[in-house]
Amino acid sequence: MYTQLGLYIDGKWNHGNGGGGEDVLNPATQKPLAHLPHATASDLDAALAAAEKGFKMWKAKSAYDRGRIIKKAADLLRERADQVAAVMTQEQGKTLVEAKGEAVTSADIVEWFAEEGRRAYGRIIPSRNPTVRQMVVTEPVGVVAAFTPWNFPVLTPARKIAASLAAGCSIIIKASEETPGGCVELVKCFEDAGVPPGVINLVFGVPSKVSEHLIASPIVRKISFTGSVPVGKHLAELAARGMKRATMELGGHSPVVVFGDADPEKTADTISAFKYRNAGQVCISPTRFYVQEGIYDRFLKRFTDNAKAIKLGDGMEKDTTMGPLANPRRLDAMDSFVADAKSRGGKVVTGGNRSGNQGYFFEPTVITDVPDDSKIMTEEPFGPVAPIVTFKTFDEVVQRANSLEFGLAAYTFTSSPKTATAIGDALQSGMVGVNSVAISTPETPFGGIKDSGYGHEGGIEGLEVYMNKKFIAQA
Ligand code: NAD
To answer: Distance between CA atoms of 469 and 212, rounded to whole angstroms?
Structure first.
């Protein structure tokens, strides 16, 4: 069973005002799951009006009352995790185990923001004039327009909705048209938890038309986007025209630096499991592997053995450990990464090809001997292709790891505390995992630097991006 799709505007599910639509496909079978209606301009205007009304009412509630409702949504999401996971697996392809993990983690995120909204503290600043009280108060920024991609159909919308609502904002969210069901299920949890009409509105449509319409509206005061760098830059420009605040969580190309004093097998086990999660379609996926010469062979062997052991298949099947890619664009991209690598002397150690003719399956792939200027080493792979190369010295690997315009995530493995501190400081990245891949949790700031964007999605920083600070001098 998939789910009933629709637009959610002013507390009502509907099929839009005649804006057409598209079929949602199962990437494992390429068969249609359901028809998704698109919003017309008048539907978007209705969502804007509802969000404006919803904001006034939601802002007027106490942070405690808001928190109670948001917490209930988290409880419902946890209760419904199996059903939500099945929807995600069918529309996106990830395995049921991963999809359930995403649903449960999303519930944790929603719960964390439900609690953190109560701690949106201001401050009193000692005054140079004893008759004046200097106060900094926090206020919700206003109506939010959020845009989310297809790789995490529940988690990414959960971050944006929960943080907006915890801050006292209302939101219009345009989730991915390719994986709409996860967000529909999520919004139903908030609806059933008692979020009043207008506070959350969910729309779908032609992405460029929807974003242009919403961002240009004076009602919208904040933009939050997760997706590719080119689209992020475009939306940032649109936001700048209205001087609107923006959070941009864009792509990455995460280096993994494995020093010669790390345990090669243990490191390969940790990082290969992380690499092929969601078939590599993760913005913080490890994507460029630099391994110091002394342990390269052992690391490569173990990593390759692990890649070969992956069971590729429909995510709904129990024994599947990696599902299909989410759409045919990723299949084409993988083919082009592999062809480019081969043409530059790269060796495919395992995988390298599409698997079967039905469904968007691509083999878990390992490539060696690729030059640093090849496509796979410079463009975000967003798929199950792992280039593994060697390095000699600390300075050399730092230079190579920092050579791209991306700066989202980086990982490093070493048994030396001195090296750990030095490399943690040297890597140009919003997040660094040192002997760890646990860089995305509800309570910690998630975000990039350089072309990977700005603003944060988790932790107290993730709440602050939805709040204005107002200074009041009171005599
Ligand atoms: P894309 O750039 O066309 O789309 C990325 C996402 O942005 C999609 O969800 C899409 O619906 C949305 N989008 C596109 N144009 C938009 C617009 N004008 N306004 C609002 N939303 C818009 O690319 P794609 O083929 O879907 O994905 C390819 C690349 O995108 C990947 O290689 C990866 O680099 C990047 N990506 C990053 C993330 C992430 O989590 N940071 C997620 C998905 C995709």
So the answer is: 27
User: What per-residue confidence (pLDDT) applies to 413?
Assistant: 98
Mutation pick for ligand 1 pocket among 94, 231, 449 (CB with most ligand atoms within 8 Å): 231
Contact yes or no for 408/448 (Cβ under 8 A): yes
Write down the pTM of the prediction: 0.97
Q: Are residues 195 and 142 in contact, defined by beta-carbon separation less than 8 angstroms?
A: no
185 in active site? no
Q: Which residues contact 222 (CB under 8 A, 6 or more apart)?
A: 141, 142, 143, 144, 145, 164, 169, 244, 245, 246, 247, 465, 466
pLDDT at 434: 98
Residue nearest to atom 24 of ligand 1 (CA): 228
Distance between CA 123 and CA 134 in Å, rounded? 9
Cα(251)–Cα(184) distance, rounded to whole angstroms? Answer: 24
Among the four given CATH numbers 3.30.450.20, 3.30.70.260, 3.30.470.20, 3.40.605.10, the one describing domain 7-250+450-474: 3.40.605.10
Residues framing ligand 1 (Cβ under 6 A): 147, 149-151, 176, 207-208, 211, 226-228, 231, 234-235, 249-251, 283, 329, 380, 382
Confirm if 113 and 162 have CB atoms less than 8 A apart: yes
**Three-class SS of 426-443:** HCCCCEEEECCCCCCCCC
What does DSSP say about strands 123-125 and 133-140: parallel, antiparallel, or unpaired? antiparallel
Q: Which helix (H) or strand (E) holds 308?
A: helix 296-308
Domain 254-434 has CATH 3.40.309.10: yes
- Domains of the chain by residue range: 7-250+450-474, 254-434
Q: Which stretches of the chain drop beneath a pLDDT of 50?
A: none
Contact 363, 351 (CB under 8 A): yes
